[in-house]
Specification:
The complex is a heterodimer. By secondary structure, chain A is α+β, with helices and mostly antiparallel strands. Helix content of chain A is about 25%, strand content about 25%. Chain A has 9 helices and 10 strands. Classes of the chains: A alpha+beta, B mainly alpha.
Chain lengths: ~400, ~190
């Protein structure tokens, strides 16, 4: 006996449509399943996140150290006055006749010995050149824009200077002058000017030669005080995590626009609403029973007010004079209850615990209202579930915090 | 809902990953609920059997060796769950019935194509649920699970002839009720017993 056509039609009919999915069935089933043991996929993902965070922190630290190293290396090559400012220690021989030379600067000319009048050749270039070296490679920057006094006829030095000035108007024909000093010339031949542009990657200290001269360009933040203390407070807004904070902070500049900031604060978490909204549901249902008798008090005894002590180290960047961004870690220890059993019951089958020791990440933006008063907005994300790997049983203490600080400069 | 491969689901279920378990549940919810509805006497029992079946699947997913399809492996678990339930509740006495006059009789029935076209799937399920428990079970095993009469005989401790009789009996009953359903609306899902 085999299946007949009727059986086939039945099969086909039952495959025609599906039954509607009821999520309540899954909810009931999931309660019967053994608790999730942080599967490897999630573990892998969590390790990936942790590795990413560590890599980001390492990158930030490496950037800080690199910037600091660059500062040190720049300090090792301080900007000096042009070598021409150094007084010559020996007499430089005159160049050969017919050689095309670049006339010295005014300062240099003042320091050079005056050649004999019978010598039509221009004065030697610089005191630093040796006879065998190219006399023009160590030439100090020439500034033809400077006013050259007209030599008085009959005055040897002036006449020579005048001649040299005339010669200086001509662009160098044979050799290109490469200034040793990092101080760029204001007027240069096109070739040299291009080289200066290509050297723009040299630290920006030297780009701002219009106002402050070499090695004096400093960002507005860097001009600010390097270390400061501040007193501040804030208000937290978050699901299950509304409250207040008050504490002290210390900030110090480390390199460039980077700074490190540390905060120690007391934090108050208003758990009263959570108790009323969530933990109180069991009690409310018990009271509604026809017997009217109050059932045994629930096993959960929620604390109305939770207190934490908070340590929040962070690293930041001063974007401009008034705005800074920072990221950091956050460690909070519960003071009001240390047995780690402070619970909130979000639903009949969903109980979460406020962690006694909570770890989180913070990101903050700060704005200077006045030089001493700062406003900030911080976001905190809890990491206890990620780090403790215990089945998401902890309340994720995430919240926004609006904060105000009063800064006290130290140095 | 994110898409996972079967391998991902199996591995996830082995690791007790809720996400993968829920994905599997949703994917096979309709299939296994219909399967259980064919064996149960009403939808309430069918839902309970399906839950039990999935529970066994999740608890024993590590026993899946990879031989054969995963769906076939799950299907066998669900069917066995249904059979265990039926054996414990309804089939004890039914197994003791004898049908000496009708054993071996092969009956052909006229195919009511039009009637089947007009009936809804849910109504058809309801009609199947009204069949006598043993006939319903044997019919399901033969028509839907593909068991032979010999295998059914071993499974339910009956002869091949008895198995054949039950299949014929179920067909006859179904055809009669499908015809009757053309004139009567059967609301199976509204008759869940508490």
């Amino acid at each position: 006996m085999s299946k007949n056509e009727f059986d086939e039609l039945l099969l086909k009919k039952l495959q025609e449509e599906d039954l509607a999915y009821d999520p309540e069935h899954w909810d009931r089933l999931s309660q019967l399943l053994p608790p999730s043991l942080a599967p490897a996929a999630n573990k892998g993902r969590k390790w990936l996140i942790a590795t990413g965070i560590a890599a980001a922190a390492a990158f930030v630290l490496a950037t800080v150290f690199y910037v600091k190293l660059m500062d040190k290396s720049n300090d090792a090559f301080p900007v000096q006055e042009p070598s021409v400012a150094q007084k010559p220690t020996e007499t430089v021989p005159a160049p050969a006749t017919g050689t095309n030379v670049t006339p010295p600067s005014v300062q240099e000319r003042q320091n050079m010995p005056v050649p004999a009048p019978s010598n039509p050749a221009p004065a030697p270039v610089t005191a630093n050149n040796s006879s065998s070296a190219n006399p023009y490679t160590t030439r100090a920057p020439y500034n033809p824009a400077q006013v050259i006094p007209v030599p008085v006829p009959g005055t040897t030095t002036r006449e020579e200077e005048h001649k040299e000035e005339k010669m200086a108007q001509e662009p160098p024909r044979e050799q290109q002058i490469v200034p040793q000093s990092p101080m760029p010339r204001q007027k240069e031949s096109p070739v040299v000017a291009k080289k200066e542009e290509n050297q723009a990657s040299v630290p920006t200290y030297f780009n701002d030669f219009d106002n402050d001269g070499p090695a004096t360009y400093v960002s507005g933040a860097a001009k600010a005080n390097r270390t400061s203390l501040s007193l501040g407070g804030g208000v937290n807004y978050g699901n299950l995590n509304t409250g207040y904070t008050v504490g002290v902070s210390a900030r110090t500049k480390i390199a460039g626009n980077f700074f490190v900031d540390g905060t120690v604060a007391m934090m108050y978490n208003n758990n009263a609403n959570n108790v009323a909204n969530y933990n109180g549901s069991t009690t409310a249902k018990a009271l509604a029973r026809p017997s009217g008798q109050l059932a045994a008090s629930p096993a959960i005894e929620p604390t109305q007010n939770l207190y934490y002590v908070q340590v929040n180290p962070s690293i930041g960047y001063q974007i401009d004079k008034n705005v800074a961004l920072s990221v950091g870690s956050d460690f909070q220890q519960m003071l009001s209850r240390t047995d780690g059993s402070e619970k909130v019951q979000l639903a009949a089958d969903n109980t979460k615990i406020f962690p006694a020791f909570d770890v989180g990440l913070t990101t903050k933006s700060e704005f200077n209202i006045t030089p001493n008063i700062q406003a900030g907005l911080m976001y905190r994300e809890g990491l206890s579930n990620l780090l403790k790997n215990d089945g998401n049983k902890y309340v994720n203490r995430r919240y926004f915090q609006v904060q105000f600080k009063y800064n006290i400069p130290v140095n | 809902m994110a898409e996972y491969t079967e391998l991902d689901i199996i591995e996830g279920c082995r690791r007790n990953n809720r996400m993968h378990q829920e994905y599997l549940y949703k994917k096979y919810y309709s299939l296994f609920l219909k399967l259980c509805a064919r064996y149960a006497k009403d939808m309430h029992d069918a839902e309970q059997l399906m839950q039990d079946g999935f529970l066994k699947i999740f608890n024993h997913v590590n026993d899946y060796s990879g031989k054969g399809s995963f769906e076939g492996w799950m299907r066998r678990i669900v069917v066995n769950t249904c059979l265990d339930y039926l054996k414990s509740k309804y089939l004890k006495n039914a197994m003791q019935l004898h049908f000496p006059n009708e054993i071996g009789e092969s009956t052909t029935f006229s195919v009511e194509n039009n009637a089947l076209d007009k009936i809804a799937m849910k109504d058809l399920l309801g009609i199947i649920q009204t069949l006598p428990p043993m006939s319903r079970t044997v019919f399901n095993l033969f028509v839907f699970e593909g068991y032979t009469h010999k295998e059914i005989g071993v499974l339910l401790d009956m002869s091949e002839g008895t198995s054949q009789w039950h299949v014929n009996n179920a067909r006859k009953n179904l055809q009669q009720k499908i015809k009757a359903n053309q004139f009567t609306e059967i609301k199976c899902y509204e008759q869940k017993r508490i």
